[in-house]
Specification:
The complex is a heterodimer of chains A (375) and B (379). With 375 residues, chain A is mainly α. Helices cover 74% and strands 1% of the residues of chain A. By secondary structure, chain B is of the alpha/beta class. Helices cover 32% and strands 32% of the residues of chain B. Chain B is built from 11 helices and 13 strands. Chain B has helices spanning 2-17, 71-81, 98-102, 107-110, 131-136, 145-159, 167-175, 212-221, 304-330, 337-344, 352-361; strands spanning 28-38, 44-52, 61-68, 85-87, 93-97, 123-127, 182-189, 192-202, 205-210, 228-235, 256-274, 279-293, 363-374. Chain A binds chain B through residues 117-118, 120, 122-123, 127, 130-131, 134, 138, 171, 173, 175-179, 182, 244-248, 258, 261-262, 264, 269-270, and chain B through 9, 12-13, 16-17, 20-21, 89, 116, 119-121, 166, 168-169, 171-173, 175-176, 336, 339-340, 342-347. Chain A: One of its GO terms (biological process) is spore germination.
Chain lengths: 375, 379
């Protein structure tokens, strides 16, 4: 496998599209339920946790893009090969692929559960999962550019939904945000760590990087994308703190959908049914990007056909997501994957970028000493 | 090839999604209002006002009453009595009788929010008397009792003194201990249904009642926008201090003047003056539009408006103070002084009983400032 990789021009895309990709993959289905998990530890200072986690995300993205810039045009799979050698590199790559597989399955199961609880209680899970998978395969066949096109559509959905959160503000009790910093710093940090599950996904830039046409703009648009999702998370967090009472928020499983319940127009009510259905576009982009990341690994390491692998991967995700049914199991899985999110989306990329920086410094010194020696 | 692929996908989609349950409007009994009467043995008498849309039937309304231990149990029993399945999505009103509060059976209302079909903006009201009687009485002039009750509550909560009490607000206030519930109360009087006042709660108990005027004060203090036709009677003997007496153009011999004004805008601010001894200061600012004075009043004379302002301000301050004292006496902090206190004093950890003990001992000073903006089309 070549460490550096430059795809053909007709597979490349412009850097500004990263904005949509990052927004979609970060917001996904986590935005429906994350509030209560943060609130559990940070109380009414949960919004500080969100801000904190957002800042850490910005830092991580900065480190990741700096690392990628050193290589010129490569992805995570290539970096692993370069830094750790073939064996360890393959193992780490497989770990990441497995991680993305789990994330895909969890995402799918979470979204399907929302559909089952809110819209179709009688609908069997397998049906929705199979339909979603068919859609994933169909769109995935179009390749990365089609996937990114879907992200643009998904962003429109996110944007319109974000405006709907205006309605709960009418019933806001702003004093519920006060007093600020009543929770101690440790719990606020803990809340920030829990944001990992919702904020992860931006590390896909590690795999998309070679496909960007104007790489010098990557940093700007990735950071903008992260900033956009941070703002959306912050706003929804604040609104849910002022709208719900503490125990209401802790009891409801999907606070964001609960807040949409109250929107009322003379000709239309109960918009959450529409939002949940249309949200499939957003959920789908997450599924697409994650399955693409997996098949990309097969292609890079062993040069296997991405389309065939997509079908196989989809079959595995269907099996995986069907393997748990009860809400408690899903919640358990979410918690478990949340830890991996923090490890593989935040901690490890930061670590890797440090390692890469050291390796590059080491190589440069070696090259210069060699140069001096030969003179 | 492409056509074949399209057709196969289409067929799969049809096969996969064709067998779901359908909801046809004509085959649904749409629930509009539901009422609970509590019985001594901790069961309910559940009454539902429904709408059915059958094209050939003239009377499209139906009310059914069943005995049940839970609301879902009631739903099953109602389904057994109705020609079509009940649909919950259009539920607008939940009515409760007083016994539910006495027998501590409020949780049954709380759990309604577990069902996603119920909206959070369903209105909650108390019925003075039996809910079953209010919903099943054979009214001559009301075509659908559910819709009537809904409209009545809706406009009064939105545009009048009725405190906004939705299922969301209900659960919200029950959850936190620093704020109590204030629920509008209605009553059937012969052929008519009327909103009578506001029930003030302490915990899950009804401890007092507030008049419409106090309902207006309550709403303003909570920061909810409300317009109100405020009616007050001023004794002539009390008018000397403000100087209002000299502007009464004709003396008709009565010893009191009735003044009615329309509240254009009002703003309430609550300030915590002393967190140690729990001292609050409540200030209401009201912009008003004079609608009626029972005697000719010389608005054109200098100082006339000022005098009226002074007098009304004094009257309204007294009314407000009366209400605040009443709240403390019955120990029902429905305004949310406790919430204000919690938000301003860090690490109070106001637990359930702590605030409820502290509230009656607190001191709250009310003051009303007014501005007379208009006097209608005449002076």
């Amino acid at each position: 496998m070549d460490i550096r990789y430059t795809p053909r021009k007709n597979f490349q895309f412009h850097a500004f599209l990263l904005f949509f990709v990052i927004c979609n993959v970060q917001i996904g289905v986590g935005v429906f339920s994350y509030e209560r998990y943060i609130y559990q530890v940070s109380g009414h200072d949960a919004w500080i946790s969100v801000v904190l986690a957002g800042l850490i995300t910005h830092l991580t993205v900065w480190l990741i893009v700096r690392m990628l810039e050193r290589y010129g045009s490569t992805d995570l799979y290539g970096i692993h090969y370069d830094v750790f050698g073939k064996l360890a590199g393959t193992l780490l790559n497989c770990l990441y692929m497995l991680y993305y597989l789990c994330v895909t399955a969890i995402m799918m199961r979470n979204y399907v559960e929302v559909i089952q609880v809110w819209i179709f209680p009688d609908l069997p899970a397998w049906l929705v999962i199979v339909l979603l998978s068919l859609l994933t395969i169909y769109a995935g066949y179009g390749g990365i550019r089609v996937i990114i096109g879907m992200c643009v559509l998904g962003f429109i959905v996110i944007l319109f939904t974000a405006f709907l959160f205006y309605s709960p503000l009418k019933y806001a009790i702003w004093t519920q945000l006060l007093p600020v910093m009543e929770t101690d710093a440790w719990h606020v940090m803990n809340g920030a760590v829990r944001m990992g599950f919702s904020l992860s996904g931006f590390e896909l830039i590690l795999l998309l990087y070679p496909f960007i046409r104007n790489k010098e703009r990557t940093m700007l648009h990735t950071q903008l994308g992260v900033a956009c999702s941070n703002v959306i998370y912050l706003v929804t967090m604040i609104i849910s703190i002022v709208y719900f009472s503490p125990s209401q928020l802790l009891r409801s499983i999907w606070p964001s959908i609960n807040m949409l319940k109250i929107i009322k127009y003379p000709y239309l009510e109960r918009l959450e049914f529409i939002v949940v259905s249309v949200w499939m576009l957003v959920a789908l982009t997450g599924l697409l990007l994650n399955t693409w990341a997996i098949t990309r690994g097969f292609k890079r390491m062993w040069n296997w056909n991405q389309k065939t692998m997509l079908v196989i991967v989809s079959i595995i995700t269907v099996a995986l997501s069907l393997s748990f049914e009860a809400h408690s199991q899903i919640a358990q899985m979410n918690k478990w994957i949340g830890k991996w999110n923090v490890a593989l989306s935040f901690v490890y990329p930061m670590l890797l970028s440090c390692i890469v920086a050291i390796v590059f410094a080491f190589r440069r010194r070696k090259a210069s000493s060699k140069g001096e020696g030969s003179r | 090839m492409k056509g074949l692929r399209f057709i196969s996908v289409f067929v799969i989609l049809l096969l996969l999604s064709g067998c779901l349950k359908t909801n046809v409007l004509e085959r649904l009994s749409i629930l509009v209002a539901i009422g609970y009467d509590a019985k001594e043995d901790n069961t309910f008498k559940v009454t539902a006002a429904l709408m059915e849309s059958q094209p050939d039937v003239k009377d499209m309304n139906r009310t059914v009453s069943v005995d049940a231990a839970t609301s879902k149990g009631a739903r099953r029993k109602m389904n057994e009595m109705l020609p079509h399945e009940i649909a919950n999505g259009q539920l607008r009103v939940i009515l409760l009788d007083r016994n539910i509060f006495r027998l501590k059976m409020l949780n049954e209302v709380d759990v309604l929010s577990r069902d996603p079909a119920f909206g959070d903006m369903v209105m909650v009201a108390i019925v003075d008397g039996s809910v079953q009687d209010l919903l099943t009485y054979p009214y001559k002039n009301k075509s659908n009792i559910g819709v009537t009750v809904n409209s009545l509550l809706d406009h009064n909560m939105k545009w009048n003194w009725g405190p906004l009490m939705t299922l969301h607000e209900f659960t919200h206030s029950r959850d936190i201990h620093t704020k109590e519930l204030a629920i509008p109360m209605m009553k059937r009087e012969g052929e008519e249904i009327a909103l009578k006042g506001v029930a003030l709660l302490h915990g899950d108990h009804i401890v007092g009642e507030a008049t419409p005027r106090e309902g207006y004060f309550l709403k303003t203090m909570k920061g909810e926008k409300t317009s109100f036709l405020y009616e007050t009677v001023i004794k002539k003997s009390a008018m000397q201090a403000s100087g209002m007496a000299q502007f009464l153009a004709m003396n008709d011999g009565k010893d009191e003047v009735k003044v009615v004004f329309h509240v254009i805008q009002s703003k309430g601010t609550i300030k915590l003056l002393d967190s140690q001894n729990i001292k609050f200061d409540v200030n209401l600012h009201i912009d008003m539009d004079i609608q009626e004075i029972s005697e000719r009043y010389s608005f054109e004379k200098t100082g006339a408006v000022e005098a009226l302002k002074r007098q009304l301000s004094k009257e309204l301050t007294a009314h407000l103070q009366q209400f605040l004292d009443k709240l403390r006496k019955v120990n029902s902090d429905c305004v949310g002084f406790g919430e204000k206190y919690r938000s301003l004093v860090p690490h109070t950890k106001l637990e359930n009983e702590k605030w409820r003990e502290a509230f009656p001992k607190s001191s709250i000073q009310g003051r009303v400032d007014i501005d007379i903006i208009r006097t209608g089309t005449i002076e």
